[in-house]
Amino acid sequence: MSPTLWGVLGGIVAGIALALLGEAKNLKVLRRLVACAGTPGKLSIVIASRNEEAVIENTVRTLASHAPPDTEIVVVDGSTDSTPQILARLSQEIPALKVLADPYRTGKPAALNHALKHVTGDIILFLDADARMDREALTFYPRLLAHPSARAAYADFTFYNFRKTWVIEAQEYLFSFSRRLVFSGLLWRPVFMTCGLFVRKDLLQEAGEFDPKTLVDDFDLSIRLARAKVRVPFVRGPRCRIQYAPTLRDLFYQFLRWYTGGIREMRDEIKQGDLSYLLLMVALALLIYFPQVALLLDVSRGTWLLVPLVLPGFMAFLWAATSVPTLLDQRKPRLTILWAFPFLYFWIQLTVAVALLRSFGGQQPWYKVRRERG
User: Fold this and answer.
1) What's residue 351's pLDDT?
2) Does residue 343 lie within any of the structural domains?
3) Is the pTM here over 0.70, yes or no?
């Protein structure tokens, strides 16, 4: 058998093993936290809203009907559509709803900071305006945080878009991979999204406010929690339901915001002396652009070594590491595992390159992904 074929087989085996390690870690974390669960304190649900007339009513009504009796729902709104009128009407019907006008209207991080000045709960749940959680989820995660050793938890999630397009299938493929190898913290400090994040109020007070200028409030918070030596576990428990980006345009600008904001945050940390983020940026760059790096090195050396012998195994490794999680979630093979990886790999290469250029510019607008009504 040729060295190239051996490399491909080795890459597939290594990718499968890595994905299974991520799955095992998630299961271990779930068992550990469930074993320590107790009686939770009061829950406050925080939502930053901006022109969310398509979804805000169903979100608030769903949360109010499913949340524990003493839960408060705090919505900070800076809308110019009919959202303020909808919230005003709902506040008359739902005593648990507290509506605050956004005094800044400069973005989500500043709105969240304003909301945190008015919450009264012991546990804070951050949700986006389209997010839904059922009764099981709203009682399960606060119970985990009742133990002194558990100060935050990031809930598992899924989509509820009414039209399942190929763009949404591609995102679910990516998130299946992220659950095992990104959110799990298997390879790096855990990364999470603020939507579906349960965190104790005293920990937020220690970590400090969100940076009002950040494009990635979740990454900003993860950095501050890392400074406080807090690792936020990703918990494969009841799922938070959210809407994924429905179109290719929405997906591009959502990725662009994530990567532009992430590059800026890491660069700021490097300037402050944390060289671990430099190592992270280099590792990510090699992972994302290895085909181009291999080609350039072979051309510069005048010998074909990396491209014919190493690159096939590397790509096989990435394909297996990203496709096995999808098989674990779907329980049966689907055509997604054939096309989603090459599409997303190219897509990430493209958006990271554009994000790197944009990261040196001025303040970028916060692109709002379109919502499906419901």
Assistant:
1) 97
2) no
3) yes
Mean local confidence (pLDDT), 88-97: 96
Query: Which CATH number goes with the domain that contains 228?
Result: 3.90.550.10
Compute φ and ψ for 147, nearest 5 degrees: -80, 135
Predicted local confidence at residue 335, as pLDDT: 86
Rounded Cα gap, residues 345 and 243, in angstroms: 22
The closest alpha carbon to 130, from 219, 208, 196, 226, belongs to 196
218 SS3 class: helix
**Residues linked to residue 125 through DSSP beta bridges, in sequence order:** 45, 198
Rg from Cα positions in the chain: 22
51: confidence class by pLDDT, cuts 50, 70, 90:
very high
The SS3 of residue 88 is helix
**pLDDT at residue 301, rounded to an integer:** 93
199 - beta bridge partners?
A: 124, 152
Count of C-beta atoms within a 10 Å radius of residue 35: 8
Inform me whether the pLDDT recorded for 259 exceeds 90. Answer: yes
- The answer to whether position 13 is within a domain reads no
**What are the C-alpha distances in Å from 325 to residues 8, 288, 371?**
19, 19, 27
The residues, any chain, with a CB within 8 Å of residue 293's CB and separated by 6 or more, are 286
What are the φ and ψ backbone dihedral angles of 120, each rounded to 5 degrees? Answer: -120, -5
Q: Which tokens is 323 given?
A: 């496709």
Nearest Cα to 342, choosing from 323, 364, 366, 363?
323
Write out the residue range of the structural domain in which residue 200 sits. 26-167+191-245
Helix (H) or strand (E) holding 183: none
Contacts of 283 (CB under 8 A, 6+ apart): none
Residue 132 binned pLDDT confidence (cut-offs 50, 70, 90)? very high
Determine, yes or no, domain membership for 227. yes
Structural domain count of the chain: 1
pLDDT in tens, 334-351: 889 899 999 999 999 999
Residue 363 clears pLDDT 80, i.e. is over it = no
Q: For residues 128 and 51, give the distance between their C-alpha atoms in angstroms, rounded to a whole number.
A: 12
Per the domain annotation, does 260 fall within a domain?
A: no
CA distances from 128 to 193, 247, 301 (A): 10, 19, 51
* DSSP character string of 297-326: HHHHHT---IIIIIHHHHHHHHHHHHHHHH
